Amino acid sequence: MSTALTLATDRRKDGTVVLAAVGEIDMSNAETFADALAEARTASDGVFVVDLTQVEYIDSAGLAALFPHLEHLRLIATPLLGPVLTIAGMDDLTTIMN
């Protein structure tokens, strides 16, 4: 059984929009994730941050939701997701947090 996805959008003091995801991102909720990404991009004045440090799993549907926004986002992830993001070619957009 997968862990439910929770999404929250916030704005840092410097104005940067941050979309934080908690749980698992898979084909069952990738559309919800994609909608949240689109809203975060619209709310930002340029680059926004996607915080994946509390994501336990992301599948190809979740990765596909990120691709339309690649030029406008920065990812924060844990070492658990690092290899997946590297294989997907997103490693240059990712900060791996320990």
Count every helix, treating DSSP H or I runs of 4 or more residues as helices: 3
Task: Identify the CATH class.
Answer: Alpha Beta
Going by CATH, the homologous superfamily would be: STAS domain
Low-confidence segments, given as residue ranges, are none
Which band does the percent of strand residues land in? 25-35%
Number of strands: 5
Backbone shape: globular
The domain tally reads: 1
The main pleated sheet reads as: 5 strands, mixed
Explained architecture:
The chain has 98 residues and is α/β, with parallel strands linked by helices. The chain has helices spanning 30-43, 60-66, 82-87, and strands at 6-11, 17-25, 48-58, 73-77, 94-96. It has three helices and five strands. It has a five-stranded mixed sheet. Helix 1 runs parallel beside helix 2 (60-66). The model has no long low-confidence stretch (mean pLDDT 91).
Key attributes of the depicted protein:
single chain; 98 residues; alpha/beta; Transcription Regulator spoIIAA; five-stranded mixed beta sheet; 3 helices
SSE topology sketch:
Layout: E1 6-11, E2 17-25, H1 30-43, E3 48-58, H2 60-66, E4 73-77, H3 82-87, E5 94-96
Parallel strand pairs: 2-3, 3-4, 4-5
Antiparallel strand pairs: 1-2
Helix pairs in contact: 1-2
Task: Give the gist of this structure.
This protein is α/β, with parallel strands linked by helices and 98 residues long.
